[in-house]
Design brief:
Elements: H1 2-8, H2 12-37, H3 41-65
Helix pairs in contact: 1-2, 2-3
Length: about 70
Amino acid sequence: MLIYRVAKGPHAVDRVVAGDTIDSITVVIMVLYGAISNRGIYLDIALIVSLLGFISTVAISKYLEGRL
């Protein structure tokens, strides 16, 4: 359902929120896998992915608002 919302959301804001949700789910899966497999690299990658997701969400939001 999230992929559909990203592809054909009625508004751009809906697409951004769906993309952010997909990013959050991906980070949670990476953290859980890193904890289960006892490998710290997955936690580092999850941190980088979450920071990039946050920065991109803020940048897209400012662009849609017209301040970028």
